[in-house]
Amino acid sequence: MIVLLGEQRRRLLPERLLGAPALVVEVISYSSKRTDRLQKRELYQGEGVAEYWIVDPALRRLERWTPGATAAEVFTDRLQWQPAPSAPPLEIELTAVFEEAWEGLTKPEG
Known about the structure:
26% strand
């Protein structure tokens, strides 16, 4: 998922996005861990993506990477994102999100 803010939306063309988005979110799986944590992270950091979130459902955590960072900020309970000082922060209760996701995966259909 990508998030574009304000004027960034004008850079989204039918064939591609010109420039970096404000946020990229990847939900990793066992088969994509290496690609998401290394190759995509380096690409997004190099392209100036303000924040790259790697959501690891198996570990129930979110890693937040920013340009130039050599280590991720790791969140397991709550995350706050404020892309601009004038914008109200988005608060995400990660514990609840992961609980709901796991509940949906383990609940029998019917």
